[in-house]
TrEMBL record:
Gene Ontology biological process terms from the UniProt entry: gluconeogenesis
Every Pyruvate carboxyltransferase domain range: 115-384
Residue spans crossing the bilayer: none
GO molecular function: pyruvate carboxylase activity
Gene3D superfamilies: 2.40.50.100, Aldolase class I, pyruvate carboxylase f1077a mutant domain
Protein name: Pyruvate carboxyltransferase domain-containing protein
PROSITE patterns, alphabetized: PYR_CT (PS50991)
Length: 674
């Protein structure tokens, strides 16, 4: 078989010729081109293979394009994907939802015998343990196994929260594509997402129509259950999110963020009555499911019995769902207490992705309820297989694994009340600044800041700004009990105050204008999902599009190749789409030339390809966090500022960095003379 070579500009034309029916049947003459003007309707060349070689060469020369928190290499061991039977997976709760709608679904959940589980492995578990860095590639590998062996799960949480912006910002992949691909592979189990009320999946307030449109597009792409919460339990914000999710046709799960300790009579701000009153408002507003979101893992067994028992007595027909973290190590005990007190659903993560700042162990809950009226109906041996896959997969994310710096959970979370994901991030940051031995003081300062602000409910985004006093401006809502005075007035002075629901005063977003702007910038292949990504994160979406224009569909690469690039002489395959596979071999890495470049040699489907890798001080494609006043970073995926401490006192003699430069650990920043 011969090969047809062509200039790059002629490829679209030749593709049209080769797919023309008249040409295929061999009935062409010299008038063929004149009579088939549609041959000149040229589609832009994707050139994906060359772009991916460019990316691989770039990583081989410059290192990862995503910031690496710790010096660790991805494991060289690839996970073994468990076998699944041929044919369709068993019927699951999603079939009930599609058949009976949200109201019928909720009734079926309440009638169900035994304890139901939501699996957080696809979202909150890796958000808590692996800095939200798990890629769609690894989720897709295990999704069919989940579909065939865990069909009686209540849901799989796989979207929302920080996963939306991290997908574009650090993983260089489309969050909507993740949802679409997982839906095709896991059709029988409901998908669940975390919706931050009026904040949608962002860290700020959006116009009301943006929240409604987001829920509508999410529902169209396969999302089923919307866990709606507000970081301050501010009811107007929650009601907006509930209305948006409900109008889109989704199951509304209104979640009350839990803080304090209802079993301690000395702590009265967030008393049992406070939670019962708030739950009453949410039930009146029409929630299908009532959830308790224990984001820091503060629920103790006795508090669980009091809170869930009281909610069950008050709302006998309402499904109750409980979420927690295992930071203190009491998560399994607390969830069993919740189940015994009337909870229908509890959150778990597979064993190798459980514990510490993640959720309690799936295997432990399954084993502890086996043979009782709370039995989950899940086969324990299948949990073991599921866990083995994630144990090996977790090794691929060694550069982001919290266990690099944090070796255990800590019961002092009952004092500092730091949410699971933020606890991990703070620990990483403290170690990166050489303050790991002072983490106790960091937690003490967090506790003091919380008291100064009036003992806030702390969950994204309120937890990320507890030390900045910006919450006292009212930009994310009004906390329970209002703002502490005279502290608020002293801080704000003459600055404007926000009264009422922050998003209510925002003008509606013009989606048609936004789509037109995006088409002008990126061409006509802009989807409704792209428009929503740009609406939520304009700058992040722009950087994502620029990255993919340069480097192509890097989500097709396996995780080790994405993070670390190939080894010399390594051969591997990349599946661009079904039936289109690239065969690549990394041949050699040249020396640095006078132009500051190193040539990287690959073999692509046979012939040798050469790409030039420019050596950079920073990394092309690094997504910089959005900047606020004075160069400070607004809360983003890592949700923190970084402070650089000097190891000695002296005079700065030379500065090596510029504004907006991308830095890594051990980069030279400045010189100091004593």
């Amino acid at each position: 078989m011969g090969k047809l070579a062509s200039k790059q500009t002629n490829i679209p034309f030749l593709q049209n010729v080769l797919s023309n029916d008249q040409f295929l049947y061999g009935t062409v003459d010299t008038q063929f081109i004149d009579e088939n003007q549609d041959l000149f309707n040229l589609k832009p060349v994707q050139n994906r293979a060359q772009k991916l070689l460019h990316y691989l060469g770039h990583v081989m020369v410059n290192g990862p394009t995503t910031p690496i928190p710790v010096k660790a290499k991805p494991s060289s061991i690839d996970p073994v994907i468990p076998a699944v039977p041929m044919g369709d997976p068993p019927v699951g709760f999603r079939d009930v939802l599609l058949r009976e709608g949200p109201e019928g679904f909720a009734k079926a959940v309440r009638r169900h015998d035994g304890l139901l589980l939501m699996d957080t492995t696809f979202r909150d578990a890796h958000q808590s343990l692996l800095a939200t860095r798990v890629r769609t590639h690894d989720l897709k590998n295990i999704a069919p196994f989940v579909a065939h062996n865990f069909s009686n799960l209540f849901s799989v949480e796989n979207w929302g929260g920080a996963t939306f912006d991290v997908a574009m910002r650090f993983l260089c992949e489309c969050p909507w594509k993740r949802l679409q691909e997982l839906r095709a592979l896991l059709p029988n189990v409901p998908f669940q997402m975390l919706l931050r009320g009026a904040n949608a999946v962002g860290y700020t307030n959006y116009p009301d129509n943006a929240v409604f449109k987001f829920c509508e597009v999410a529902r169209e792409n396969g999302m089923d259950i919307f866990r709606v919460f507000d970081s301050l339990n501010y009811l107007p914000n929650m009601l907006l999110g509930m209305e948006a999710a409900g109008s889109a046709g989704g199951v509304v799960e209104a979640a009350i963020s839990y803080t304090g300790d209802v079993s301690d009579p000395m702590r009265q701000k967030y008393s049992l009555q406070y939670y019962l009153d708030l739950a009453e408002e949410l039930v009146k507003a029409g929630t299908h499911i009532l959830a308790i979101k224990d984001m820091a893992g503060l629920l103790k067994p006795e508090a669980s019995r009091q809170l869930i028992g009281s909610l069950r007595d008050r709302f006998p027909d309402m499904p109750i769902h409980v979420h927690t973290h295992d930071t203190a190590g009491a998560g399994v005990a607390a969830m069993l207490a919740c189940a015994e007190s009337g909870a229908d659903i509890v959150d778990v993560a597979v064993d190798s992705m459980a514990g510490m700042t993640s959720q309690p162990s799936m295997g432990a809950i399954v084993a502890c309820t086996k043979g009782t009226k709370l039995s989950t109906g899940i086969a324990l041996e299948k949990v073991f297989d599921y866990s083995e896959y994630w144990e090996v997969t977790r090794g691929l994310y060694a550069p982001f694994d919290c266990t690099a710096t944090m070796k255990s959970g800590n019961a002092d979370v009952y004092e500092n009340e730091i949410p699971g994901g933020q606890y991990t991030n703070l620990h990483f940051q403290a170690h990166s600044m050489g303050l790991g031995h002072k983490f106790k003081e960091v937690k003490k300062a967090y506790t003091e800041a919380n008291k100064l602000l009036g003992d806030l409910i702390k969950v994204t985004p309120s937890s990320k700004i507890v030390e900045t006093c910006r919450s006292s401006w009212g930009h994310i809502g009004i906390p329970h009990g209002g703002f502490p005075e005279p502290f608020r007035s002293k801080v704000l002075k003459s600055l404007p105050r926000v009264e009422g629901r922050p998003g209510a005063s925002l003008p509606a977003m013009d989606f048609q204008a936004l789509e037109k702007q995006l088409r002008e910038s990126y061409g006509d292949e802009i989807s409704p999902e792209d428009v929503m990504s740009a609406a939520m994160y304009p700058k992040v979406f722009q950087e994502f599009k620029e990255f993919t224009t340069t480097f192509g569909p890097v989500d097709c690469l396996n995780t080790r190749l994405f993070l670390d690039g190939p080894k010399i002489a390594e051969e591997f395959e990349v599946e661009l789409e079904r039936g289109k596979i690239l065969h690549i071999k990394a041949l050699a890495l040249g020396d640095l030339n006078k132009a500051g470049q190193r040539e990287v040699f690959f073999e692509l489907n046979g012939p040798t390809q050469i790409c030039a890798g420019q050596r950079h001080c920073g990394h092309e494609g690094d997504a910089l966090p959005p900047q606020g006043p004075e160069g400070r970073t607004w809360p983003g995926a890592m949700k923190m500022e970084t402070v650089v401490n000097s190891p000695l006192s002296g005079t700065v003699t030379k500065i090596y960095v510029t504004t907006d430069a991308s830095l890594e650990g051990d980069d030279l920043i400045l010189e100091i003379s004593e």
